[in-house]
Specification:
Layout (H helix, E strand, L loop, with lengths): L1 H4 L10 H10 L5 E2 L11 H13 L9 H15 L8 E4 L2 H12 L5 E4 L6 H8 L3 E4 L3 E3 L2 E3 L2 H7 L4 E7 L11 H13 L3 E5 L15 H4 L7 E5 L2 H4 L7 E4 L3 H14 L6 H13 L1 H25 L4 E3 L6 E5 L10 H9 L1 E2 L1 E2 L9 E5 L4 H16 L4
Parallel strand pairs: 1-13, 3-4, 3-7, 7-8, 8-9
Antiparallel strand pairs: 2-10, 5-6, 9-10, 11-12, 12-15, 14-15
Length: 390
């Protein structure tokens, strides 16, 4: 686990997480814990594969992608017990542009698309940009976790509802939906012939005692109305290589995705992304297991620190992802939103809850950082909360 404790200076590397903060706030002393990428180097095997490609020196059009597809197939079977066929897989430059393209193909203006806030904020923007109406089916906070509201979901469905965007595992609240929960959701969507586009980009980042279920795997009846979006980007910190994969097991849906992607995207991913994906999915198991242990350690440290020093702050304990949702509802923030409070009073850059359709008293913090970074951020927040008002 020593490799995750070794600090890497990301400043002046043109990264959004650090250099973007400087551009936004014109300050060098803020602690960036916002953008959902990691402060850890990718696995050595990935770095070696990229180095070999660079040394080769030619970055022309790729051709035979059989090894790339096989790496994805093997990974999904090994880590998720889901047997994928090569013809089901459609490479894309990212999950967000893939979802946008799919919605353009599957909907017409004024159709309705369901999202479940608080949820990954591009969902809302994507639906609006393709001309559809957004229907919000908010999650319910109950028993110290967020749950789906199936009753309200079924009540809002009419003939104009065509698609539901599912975030699984959930960003930002960290739920890893269990099989029963997904079955209830899928049964409702099947009943009304609603297509589920399942964003499963965090599918490998699941803590012990939880299991990620690929949505199409939950029930054979869901196969024909499910599109699964995955990527190695969150798992292995490869987001900048812009490599994602859309997996469509149902033949009729697959034909529609094929039609759209053939006109929007090239039939191959980024050449460096190909090499990184093959290496990560072939050799990355141990690295991923160590990463999960380290992030779990960060979560435990945060929980213990808040329990001892910041009890008014509520931790919505994640079951997966490397993100944590914090509630400042019982904290005196001097009239500021939780985001502005931790930014202006503690110098910590988070993500505001309202950005995800949540409360202004909530923030999202990124735990995929070095332990000392997390410690420093929590000390600063403690100091801000306990600082006497003048």
């Amino acid at each position: 686990m020593a490799r995750f404790d070794k600090p890497v200076d990301r400043r002046d590397s043109d990264c959004m997480k650090f250099d973007g903060v400087r551009a936004l706030y014109n300050k060098d002393d803020l602690i960036p814990m916002w953008v959902a990428d990691m402060d850890f180097c990718a696995p050595n095997e990935v770095l070696s594969a990229l180095k070999l490609k660079v040394e080769h020196g030619i970055f022309g059009y790729p051709g035979n992608l059989s090894k790339y597809y096989q790496a994805i197939i093997d990974w999904m079977e090994k880590r998720h017990n889901w047997r994928v066929e090569q013809e089901w897989i459609f490479p894309a430059p990212g999950v967000v542009p893939a979802i946008a393209s799919i919605l353009e193909e599957l909907t017409t203006p004024n159709d309705k698309v369901i999202i479940q806030p608080p949820v990954y904020h591009p969902f809302l923007n994507i639906v609006k940009k393709v001309g559809c109406e957004v229907l919000e089916n908010p999650l319910i906070y109950r028993n110290n976790r967020y749950e789906m509201d199936y009753g309200s979901l079924e009540e809002m469905i009419d003939e104009r509802v065509k698609v539901l965007l599912l975030c699984s595992p959930h960003n930002p609240v960290g739920r890893v939906w269990n099989k029963e929960e997904l079955k209830k959701l899928g049964d409702i969507c099947s009943k009304y012939n609603i297509i589920v586009i399942s964003d499963e980009i965090h599918h490998d980042l699941v803590f012990p005692k939880n299991k990620h279920w690929v949505f199409a795997q939950v029930d054979e009846n869901f196969v024909d109305n499910t599109i699964v979006c995955t990527a190695p980007s969150k798992t292995f910190n490869l987001a900048g290589l812009q490599t994602a994969n859309v997996i469509v097991p149902g033949e009729k849906l697959r034909e529609k995705v094929q039609h759209k992607f053939s006109t929007v995207y090239n039939s191959f991913p980024n050449v460096m992304g190909i090499e990184a994906t093959k290496a990560a999915y072939t050799y990355g198991d141990n690295w991923l297991d160590e990463l999960l242990d380290y992030v779990k350690g960060n979560l435990e440290y945060l929980e213990e620190f808040i329990e001892k020093n910041l009890q008014p702050v509520k931790v919505i304990k994640p079951e997966g992802t490397y993100l944590v949702w914090l509630d400042f509802d019982e904290v005196n923030t001097d009239g500021l939103t939780a985001f502005d409070f931790v930014l202006k009073k503690a110098g910590v850059v988070s993500e505001p809850g309202e950005k995800y359709g949540g409360s202004t008293t909530s923030i999202r913090l990124n735990l995929a950082c070095h332990r000392e970074t997390l410690q420093k951020a929590l000390f600063k927040i403690e100091e801000a909360i306990n600082k006497p008002t003048v």
